[in-house]
Amino acid sequence: MEEEDRKKIILMLRWTAIIVTSYLMLFGRGRVTNLHLSYLLILIYLLSNVSLSFFPKTWFSNLKLFYPLVLFDTGIVSFGMYLSEKMTTDFYIVFFLIIIFASVSRNFKLLMVIGGITALLYGGLLYSWGLLTKEEGSSYTLRIPFIFIMTAFYGYIVQTLTREKRQELTISEDKYRGLFENANEGIILLKNPQYQIVDVNREMEKVTGYIKGELIQKDVFSLFPPEEMEKAIDYFKEVAEIGEGRTDSLSFMKKDGLSMEVDLSTKRIDLGDESFYQTIFRDLTEQRKLEKKIRQSKRNLEAIFDGIRDQLSIQAPDYRILRVNRAVVEKYQTTFEKLINQKCYEAYFKRSQPCEKCPVSVTIETKQPATSTMKGPEENTTLQVFSYPILDEKGNVLSAIEYVQDITEEQRLQEQLIQSEKLAGIGILASGVAHEINNPLSGIIGMAEIALEEEDATKSESYLKDILNCAQRISGIVNALRSYSRAAKKEELSLVDLNEVLEESLKMVRLANKKAPVEVIKRFQPIEKIEANTGEIQQVFTNLVTNAFQAMDGKGGELVLSTQPLKDSIEVKVSDQGMGIPQKYLNRIFDPFYTTKKPGEGTGLGLNIVYRIVTKYEGTIDVESKEQVGTTFTIKFPTRRVES
Amino acid sequence: MSRKILIVDDEEVIRKFLRIHLTKLGYEVKEAADGEQAIEQIGRDDFDLLICDILMPRKDGWEVIKEVKSDPKTKDMPVIVLTAKNEDTDMFKGYDLGANYYMTKPFTKAQLLYGLQLMLGKA
Question: Which member of A108, A233, A250, A385 has the greatest number of CB atoms within 10 A?
Answer without folding.
Answer: A385
